[in-house]
């Protein structure tokens, strides 16, 4: 081909700038399946299946629109391509296909493909991950092929605009960034003022379900696997048999058409109640009123603009509550964009940050859910089953336990990257290292997010079925979340007192007295030595 557009596994949208100006009659597309892409991550079976199935569906869509797509499926090598002459034929797994783990990584497969296809130039939308960016640049340089990297137009805020926003700011705060995004893009604005007169409805959006529980919640859209997905599921069961997670009940959207249905169903059935209950947790209620749209957004099957517009329209035209609509839009126009900007500002150093020098290994039950702590059992159990947990489960259950128990940040981050279907490094690393573990020392957050078992009790029913008692700081049946919380506040008392947002924690500590402090300190030390047994 004259020019070749490289489409990566999380860049599956028709507006991909790699295709801009290319001519389907003379140019072509290259897509490559590789075990673990650039980073070689260990991951949930459903995560692998989502990526492979969405890529194969997108390949078929491009072909239907007249593109020649050179598609290197997991079971294929470039030598096989050459042998079978037509690379655009079936991408199924031949009987004698080499095992996926025997294949070289993404870089070698890209190099092989370029050597075989010899394009005059390679176009590519800038990868979402810094390592992939470096890899693509390196492979092209070695192959002597001109690389035409194009800005990623999926996001509302470009990398350059985010970098400019950080200039001269000592503290990067999501809230300020979000307000600027709203003003600049005219999202939920009435003239110069925020719709409803307020930027933030957080105070209305933090309810627990009380004693009565969540009641009936319309389930999220589920999509019956088609032939392409069934083939991928069989492949994953065969090639990735030892990976965590389950494929039973796999129903994620893997095409744009499915993703649009998932979006419409969320707006119609769950957005209304999303706001008040977005932090609430309940056993047997893995999805709550959440959207489950992160996977489709991260694969680019959905555009953030259309998701935001659909939510705003539901408020303006159908009278859905502003607190819910604003709460949802804040996640996409605020958090998601902010996190992506932070990733590019702070990587690669962010991935290895360890502000508190935490050095304990990740308890093995993070991989099984087999712990007597009911909150961890529920959050990890649904994670392994569905590849999903909502924000507060990730932040305040599995995340804050890892922080206060002093687990090595890198191990925690690798776990998050492995177990969530929506995990991609640009969003996982800042959320885990910065938000959940405060391991960067608070470059873009206002405080470490820690709380005792009392918070879990207020926001969920987990404590009702637990072997531990949330109010107990030490002794028999003491709640490990509570013990580790107080030990954390005790260890970092001076720093927490200096921050107005965490000062109240230290006032609580001061009221406890020396004997109590000595008792929970000793209990925390003992628990820390037998984390695997909790
Ligand atoms: P909803 O609650 O319905 O929110 C709507 C959308 O807002 C999400 O789909 C997502 O695109 C966006 N969003 C919400 N919060 C965030 C956030 N903090 N950062 C970025 N986008 C956000 N999200 C991922 O997509 N991939 C990850 O690997 C990931 N890892 C996380 C790790 C930790 C420790 C934490 C605290 C959060 C992480 N998040 C991650 C963010 C968030 O938890 C998920 O996006 C969300 O739970 C996905 O479920 P949902 O689509 O039902 O979200
Ligand atoms: Fe979790 Fe503690 Fe409640 Fe048990 S008592 S569910 S460990 S917070």
UniProtKB/TrEMBL annotation:
This is Cryptochrome/photolyase family protein. It comes from the Bacteria. InterPro entries: Crypto/Photolyase_FAD-like_sf, PhrB-like, Rossmann-like_a/b/a_fold, UV-DNA_repair_photolyase. Coiled coil: none annotated.
